Amino acid sequence: MKENIHPNYQQVVFQDLSSDFAFLTRSTMSSKETVKWEDGNEYPVIKLDITSHSHPFYTGKQKTLDVGGRVDKFRQRYGKK
User: Fold this and answer.
1) 8 A C-beta contact, residue 48 and residue 17
2) Statement: the pTM of the whole predicted model exceeds 0.90
């Protein structure tokens, strides 16, 4: 294999700005900003607007549309009679 062609795979903290939730994982992303983690080490931090911790689909707060009513209206208007 060729040397020095692969990105640096390192420990990174992803921080959700909307819910103040953070998790440590490995990634090829990097950042100039760092944060001190629970283990006492400093890691690069990637700030995100939304994660699974704050997304309405994963939190169960997603509003469902009246799909049944729309489908019935469509079938009445364009369906076979």
Assistant:
1) yes
2) no
Is 5 a member of any domain?
no
Does residue 25 form part of some domain?
Answer: yes
Residue given tokens 């700005």 in the structure block: 17
47 occurs within a structural domain:
yes
Answer whether residue 73 is part of any domain. Answer: yes
Residues 6+ apart with CB under 8 A from 30: 8, 10, 12, 44
pLDDT digits (tens, 9 = 90+) for 22-80: 999 999 998 999 999 999 999 999 998 877 777 666 666 666 666 567 777 887 888 76
